Amino acid sequence: MKKTIINSKYIWLLSALIGFTNCNDIEDVNRDEVAITLPDVTSGSADFSNYVSLGASFTAGYTDGAVFIAGQNNSFPNILANHFASTGGNTFTQPLVSDNFGGLAANGSRIADPRLVFGGATPVPLESLIGPVTVTTDIVLNNPTGPFNNMGVPGAKSFHLLSDNLWKYCRCRLLC
Question: Is position 42 within any domain?
């Protein structure tokens, strides 16, 4: 008898819980009446007219083992600059590589491989899926003119900022 009372108590409790939760259908809420208004974006007292980023690989847009245009466009300095532009920031310029394959060449000789892509289980070289890729970004022939706002260089260290060979180092890394 006691076991039956306990079981029936839990059945009634479960039924009541289902009954209360059943009253919250999506149709019960009028979504048109709930309007969220966001405030206008302003810079306040901050001055976003000149934004320069210094850093290493993630600043430069280095991803998938290489630097390529899509990665550079998705670098955090570029994303920030796009938001700063909505509050009166100036244009943000960064030296871009020549293609979305990645890889680097010096005088026509490959010095860095193209990017990695998803191969089903692990990242694999792009060339293993689409065949040989001609690396089109040559650090000797590609001489972009600045000034640039994104000075991210993959592999850069803080002490490189004090070096007399900084610009030579940047050019070797293709980002200055």
Answer: no
- Look at residue 14 and tell me if it is in a domain: no
Query: What's the rounded Cα separation, in Å, for the pair 64 and 71?
Result: 8
Instruction: Tell whether 39 is covered by a domain.
Output: no
Question: Which pTM value belongs to this model?
Answer: 0.67
Write out the residue range of the structural domain in which residue 122 sits: 53-79+91-172
Which secondary structure element, helix H or strand E, spans residue 123, and what is its range? strand 123-125
- C-alpha gyration radius of the chain: 28
In a domain, 167, yes or no: yes
Measured CA distances, 51 to 42, 48, 153 (Å) = 16, 6, 17
Distance of CA 132 to the CA centre of its chain: 27
Residue type, 66: A
Per-residue pLDDT reduced to its tens digit, 104-118 = 898 889 988 999 999
